[in-house]
Amino acid sequence: xxNPLIEVCVDTLADAVHAExxxxxxxxxxxQLALDGLTxxxxxxxxxxxxxxxxxxxxxxxRAINFQYLPHEVEAMIETIHIYKNLGIKGIVFxxxxxxxxxxxxxxxxxxxxAEGLNFVFHKAIDLTPNPVxxxxxxxxxxxxxxxxxxxxxxxAKEGSSIIRDMxxxxxxxxxxxxxxIKYYNLNEHIKLLGVNEYHGKRILGxxx
Length: 209
Fold this sequence. Notes:
This protein is of the alpha/beta class. The chain has helices at 13-21, 42-51, 71-87, 105-114, 132-139, 161-170, 187-194; strands at 5-10, 26-29, 56-59, 91-94, 119-122, 147-150, 175-178, 198-201. α3 runs parallel beside α4 (105-114) and α5 (132-139) runs parallel beside α6.
């Protein structure tokens, strides 16, 4: 297998710069990582893009409660995508679910249209769905979804390993990004176990300064 792509999620400029210096291939930029990540501010996004050479994916998530969004919230997030797209981000990270925790396909399609030309990562909301493999198949029908970030519906990638492999088999053109307690000291173990090409974590390249 070719060298895997390593993505570090960060919520400060210092952590973004540090991750690049440690060899990260891509950044997922958020605010409020303690809340599993919300949309970063315009200022943080601009400063990060100016400071880094590696691609930046930006979390698009307006609130921390759940992944069910009202129409006006979706419109506001689409507006944010248009603004951030013009800054030069490489991708967005977004997910939306219906009340039964299945994928909110109509809103995902709307957002995918707004994000055209960017990578579109469907984030770990997929791990809340009744069946992440079925959810992967559904996402594969939507034009514009390029990646899925997942721990296989389990608390961590190791426990979700068989589901992650099944998702990878069913994902067609979509790249699976494995996440969930992947650290610098167990990264190689996960690469052997999962066999996907992309890996994500806060501490995947060691501790930040």
